[in-house]
Amino acid sequence: MSVHKNVKRVTTHTLQEMKDANEKISMLTSYDYSLAKIVDAAGIDIILVGDSASNVMAGHETTLPITLDQMIYHGSSVVRAIQRCLVVVDLPFGSYQGNSRAALDASIRIMKESGAHAVKLEGGAEIKDSITRILTAGIPVMGHLGLTPQSIYKFGTYTVRAKEEAEAAKLLEDAKMLEEIGCFAIVLEKIPAQLAKRVADSVTIPVIGIGAGADVDGQVLVLHDMLGITSEFSPRFLRRYANLYDEIKGAVAQYIDDVRRVDFPNDKEQY
Ligand code: KIV
User: Fold this and answer.
1) Is the omega angle on the peptide bond into residue 265 within 30 degrees of 0, that is, cis?
2) Which residue owns the Cα nearest ligand 1 atom 5?
3) Which of 35, 161, 166, 196 is the 20 to 30 Å CA partner of 258?
């Protein structure tokens, strides 16, 4: 019997059951009430309130500028919209790298003020203390390895990570450590598909990929990218399921034309 079809609310336990039953997990980002409502109604398993909000909602070049208050605003908007899925909120850059106390305080604020169900952090051994402390408060943690956009100025580029054996070995070690200390899932971003499969086979918790091939336990995409709202970003891993940039632009152009021709409003559209 299918796990995901039989749950009214997705929890971290549901996701573990899905991995154990070999059922793929679906995850998308959302940042606002209206789109989150549609994404949840369509049956998504996890909504990630990603710090990619910094790019797609606020127009920043990187994920670094978004603040904890802004993440809480986006998180609470999404939580008000959903009925079924699990909501995970990203801890923003600077809120957890300094020390474990700051990481715990930031996570508690996210859980209390947004109503989210879990938090996500980028990194492995370097942030082990922070993750451990957050977990002691009973807050579920999702890890994130591979391309970690909050470290873009260390990497220098957004190219595929862990192609070399040394980096791949560290990533595998980090994944095992995240499982051991109690993370409920791990996101792997932009790494070779073979390595992602090795990780998914080596840990018992769900592994969710973005640009990490098909042999993992689930997939995540940025909503605005897969809907074709953003048009300038086209990595190889991105499949576009709609072209909303052209749809929205066409609708707005039609509205402008109707207003100029005094075609809108018509007799039926007034009081
Ligand atoms: O912020 C985000 O959208 C993410 C996904 C790319 C996994 O972290």
Assistant:
1) yes
2) 50
3) 35
For residue 240, the one-letter residue type is: R
pLDDT at 194: 98
Q: How many residues does the chain have?
A: 271
Give the Å distance between the CA of 269 and the centre of ligand 1.
Answer: 42
Q: Whose CA is nearest to atom 8 of ligand 1?
A: 50
Cα(263) to centroid(ligand 1), Å: 43
CATH topology of domain 12-240: TIM Barrel (3.20.20)
Distance (Å) of CA 45 to CA 39, 63, 87, 144:
10, 24, 9, 18
Token pair, residue 147, equals: 């391309």
CB 228 within 8 A of CB 234: no
Ligand 1 center from residue 166 Cα (angstroms): 25
pLDDT value at position 6? 85
Active site residue 189: yes
* Closest CA relative to residue 70, chosen from 48, 51, 47, 83: 51
Q: Which of 113, 167, 189, 269 is catalytic?
A: 189
pLDDT at 1 over 80: no
